[in-house]
Model the fold of this input.
Amino acid sequence: MTTVASFVCGFVGEHLARSDGSARDVYSNVLAQALAGNDPPYAKGWFGNDFRRRSRDQEWLISLLLSNVDMEGYSAGRLWEYGARIGQVAMARGIQKHACDEAKHSRMFARIAFSTFPRIETEQLRDRLRGCAPALNLTTPAANGVGESHDFEELLNSLILINLFEIRALFLEKLLTPVLFAHAPEASRGYLERAMAIIVWDEVGHIRYTADFLADLANQGYEEQIIVSMREFQSVLNRLTEKEMDEDSRTNSSFL
Done:
């Protein structure tokens, strides 16, 4: 296994310390095999350097934060709808808890943006950003109220995709935190530290619940299928990440 893959597995493993030991070991083995020769770019030095270089541009960073508001809210709605359709109760509960967290993150990123760059806060922008996050909690009725049976491969692929995207999110948020401190007024830094710690904690929880399901399925005999699918999806995510970094990132957010 390459150094980068080892670093990713170790980084994720440290954050999953609260997980059941046996499940964590099974998942870590699956992840390690999926990442062998398939290094995520976001764990490489050049990626962090490029992220920090771009973040010196206030307009780029503002655009990133406002995009996070939008994407977290969008993900919340999609996850909630998907969780409402799943007949497997524990999995549905995990996905809908995840959706609630994403809606919370959407609201938090709006405040993070305003706390870091007070000059952008206007009543109009506050209203527009507020509309990005659906009002969800675990007592919110499901849209149809009836779980559906899903193809096993669809559910498995969904768990893998969520897991891999959350790992990427964890790395990006670790990169983002010190960048915010570099731009924010001194009075805002305490809030930013607490807010980012909450978001990171939630992302770890999202990795954990999907990792536990994947470990359980691996123990049921699906380990090789999980590894193959995870390797394929990670390759796609790597290409997507590199494409995003190659694109012009100076375009102003549509919110401004």
